[in-house]
Amino acid sequence: MSIQLGTKLADLRKRNGYSQEALAEKMGVSRQAVSKWERGESTPDTDTLIELARLYSVSLDTLVGNEQNEETKESETGKKKKKQKEKKPPLYPGLSKKLLLFPYPILIVVIYILLGFALNLWHPSWLLFLTIPAYYHFAIAARATTKKGLLLGMPVIEAAVFVFLVLGLFMNAWKWAWVLFILAIFYYWSVAFYVKNDK
């Protein structure tokens, strides 16, 4: 580090038009001290380094050689940004945006009101509202970049709840419809365990 610093100090001195004698006089040290700095035999103290940085109009980091670290950091940052840009596109580009822009909840409210007033189906048609979270769950799943991500994002639990209630309310199948929840759990477990995540 001292040799690198010495080389840099010599280079900056020459670039700024100072002789060793002139710099020594400017800094209030001996010419031998300046010579030792530049040969890497000694290192200026912190206050002297700060004065040299001011004299040469460079940052202290540049003077002591930390600009290489900064370059490395910038390079690493650039690599991270490049990796982010290289991320795989969604399996179904544009689908998620279209689904999210569609006013699905308003459609459900309209259908519910029409069924209520026209056919007096206020009671069972409230089940339609349960499809709203499932709809948005699917819309977000459509952003997945891998098959595994897409399958894990499917609104299986919401679908199980909806079908469970429909079977229970219309067929009085409460005693066996709970199996749907076991199937939903098995679905997520099997996708997580068996489906490979594409790289």
List the main descriptive attributes of the protein structure presented here.
199 residues, mainly alpha, 434 Repressor (Amino-terminal Domain), 2 domains, 73% helix
Explained architecture:
There is one protein chain. The protein is mainly α. It has two domains: 2-69, lambda repressor-like DNA-binding domains (434 Repressor (Amino-terminal Domain)); 95-194, no CATH class. Helix content is 73%, strand content 0%. It has 14 helices and no strands. The protein has helices at residues 2-15, 20-27, 31-39, 46-56, 60-64, 67-85, 95-101, 104-119, 122-125, 131-141, 147-152, 156-171, 174-177, 179-194. Helix 1 packs across helix 3 (31-39) and helix 12 (156-171) runs antiparallel to helix 14. The longest helix is centred in the middle third of the chain and has 19 residues, at 67-85. The two termini are 42 Å apart.
Give a brief description.
It contains 14 helices and no strands. The protein has helices at 2-15, 20-27, 31-39, 46-56, 60-64, 67-85, 95-101, 104-119, 122-125, 131-141, 147-152, 156-171, 174-177, 179-194. The protein has 199 residues and is mostly helical.
